Amino acid sequence: MSALPPLTTASAGNTKLDLTRIRAEFPILRQRIHGKPLVYLDNAASVQKPNAVIDAISDCYRNYYANIHRGVHLLSERSTIAYEGTREKVRALLNAASIREIIFTRGTTESINLVASSFGGSTIKIGDEIVITGMEHHSNIVPWQLLCERTGAVLKVVPFSDAGELILEEYQRLLNSGRVKLAAFVHISNALGTINPVNTMIDLARARGIPTLIDGAQAVAHLTVDVRALNCDFYAFSGHKLYGPSGVGVLYGKQALLEAMPPYQGGGDMISVVTFEKTEYADLPNKFEAGTPNIAGVIGLGAALDWLNHLGLDAVAAHEQQLLEDATAQLLAIPGLSIMGTARDKTALVAFTLHGIHPHDIGTILDREGIAIRAGHHCAQPVMQRYGVPATARASFAVYNTRDEVEALVKSIWKVKELFA
Amino acid sequence: MNDLRDLYQEVILDHNKQPRNFRILPQPTHHADGVNPLCGDRISVFLDIEDDIIQDISFQGAGCAISSASASLMTEALKGKPVDEVEHLFEAFHTVVTTNAECPKGLGKLSVLAGVRNYPSRVKCATLAWHAVRAALEHEKQPVATE
Ligand SMILES: Cc1ncc(COP(=O)(O)O)c(C=O)c1O
After folding, report:
1. Could you tell me the residue range of the domain that residue B89 belongs to?
2. Chain A residues within 8 angstroms (CB to CB) of chain B
């Protein structure tokens, strides 16, 4: 990576991103949509990929692809080294104690299902309670509901305020029942943008001996995550929201817990000895990685992490916060527009509704202006129910977005109002 | 903006703002809900059928302009029609919103939704109320999904 030119320039003491250079690294951003320059503001759903990632995947397939962990031949060795290299990069990203604590999955959803099935299935019993929050993505609701159905455990939900902030007194009250066996909550809400006080929430759970799982799908691309400082038991995220490819994700788990947990899936790579009488499982992390994984995808994720490190998460976050400020101020000036999620601590996304105009119509009209936003329930239907709306429109920002794009968004929303006037 | 006017025609904007037959029938002979899982929109339809004729029809629910206007226009089109005509009209309507075929005669005002054909992601919005009516006629208990 040292061959890369710097993407940041020092100006007036603080680091500024060179947006022209950054945008040039994303080939997809060059195109026009319905004749207009693409303004991609659906980053909370998935972000676009820089050349570094596209090239790393292509390089793997072109030059050294083979199955990992099994060949004595050179290509297999090279693929294995690159694949395992990403594991170390993820360990460093999260500041985990050991690469044994980094499990590759298909994404956040599979990471959470792994914990629900393996940890939940082996420790949670009838009458136990699992605490989640009212602002979870469906992927941190449904696996627990399925577990509750199987075991007779009960799901408890922490409510949140109109601003979109969790009510911590309620959280504490729920933790105090003496029956809670796990607290699972979202680090940053994809529907509201709220950055939850996970530090405090983990401490409150730990003080009662309750393990915690954090859904970090929206967090890792926007803020520094240190699992040892947080002291959480599990942390889940997806590669595709972190400038990496889709179909690969990560589960971090504390080694002692992962060692005690039964395997999630059975198959190749997760065993040490198989006879028809008995199978011995492989050590961590392989115990939880049955079958041939997404080899090129994991390698692509490694390239994404290098790329992001090179930019520096702090500079990225500062830029995105500026966009959030701009967008919030300009959007609020539009009559009839309400923003859903106004937490003090918020990531760079704005979910909104326009009086009398359905988000779906906003989405279609913006698309014709070249602007990609998300319109719908964002896989968080309980959040929509909380506010009594069927859906919201959501603009979410990434490192390559510009203030001009915020303006284009705002202008187009005025056009929506005109059309529906 | 011009091609957007093909989708959002005046008639559609009008029916969206002032949907016709937008009420609950107190004692419908047939009733069903339609859900569009993509956006969470939910529309309920109510029918009063006597002697195989749709004597009355209405709908309720929140939806986008396309689904609301389509539901409203549908109720106007179906009121007073024999039940067997529902399938014919639906097929003609479906053809219009999903293909480039010419508008069949007899579709009347429903043809204002033809612009939807250029917006494939919106076809489900346009057909939501129709799916609900067909489900109601089949006496389905579960809300139907458009997927
Ligand atoms: C907060 C949150 N959790 C979980 C997920 C699920 O991630 P994936 O679909 O990559 O498994 C998402 C993605 O939309 C999300 O935003």
Report:
1. 2-139
2. 356-361, 364-365, 368, 375-377, 381, 384, 390-391, 415, 419-420
Residue B59's DSSP bridge partners are B22, B45
Length of chain A: 421
Q: What is the CATH number of the domain that holds A228?
A: 3.40.640.10
Kindly report the protein residue whose alpha carbon is nearest to atom 14 of ligand 1.
A45
Q: Which two tokens stand for residue A201?
A: 């929430």
Q: Does a structural domain hold residue A103?
A: yes
Residue A88: give the domain boundaries: 55-309
For every one of its 421 residues, what pLDDT tens digit does chain A have, with 9 covering 90 and above?
444 555 665 444 346 899 999 999 999 999 999 999 999 999 999 999 999 999 999 999 999 999 998 778 999 999 999 999 999 999 999 999 999 999 999 999 999 999 999 999 999 999 999 999 999 999 999 999 999 999 999 999 999 999 999 999 999 999 999 999 999 999 999 999 999 999 999 999 999 999 999 999 999 999 999 999 999 999 999 999 999 999 999 999 999 999 999 999 998 888 888 888 888 898 999 999 999 999 999 999 999 999 999 999 999 999 999 999 999 999 999 999 999 999 999 999 999 999 999 999 999 999 999 999 999 999 999 999 999 998 999 999 999 999 999 999 999 999 999 999 8
The rounded Å distance from CA B84 to ligand 1 centre is 45
Sign of CA dihedral A76, A81, A86, A90: positive
Asked which of A309, A340, A360 is the last residue of a domain, the reply is: A309
Give the total number of structural domains in chain A.
2
- In B, which residues are within 8 Å of A415 by CB distance? 1
Closest residue to atom 16 of ligand 1, CA basis: A190
CATH number for B32: 3.90.1010.10
Closest ligand 1 atom to A241 CA:
10
Ligand 1 site residues (CB inside 6 A) read A 107-109, 137, 139-140, 186, 190, 215, 217-218, 238, 379
- Please judge whether A358 and B122 are an interchain contact, meaning their C-beta atoms are less than 8 angstroms apart: no
Q: Is residue B147 part of a domain?
A: no
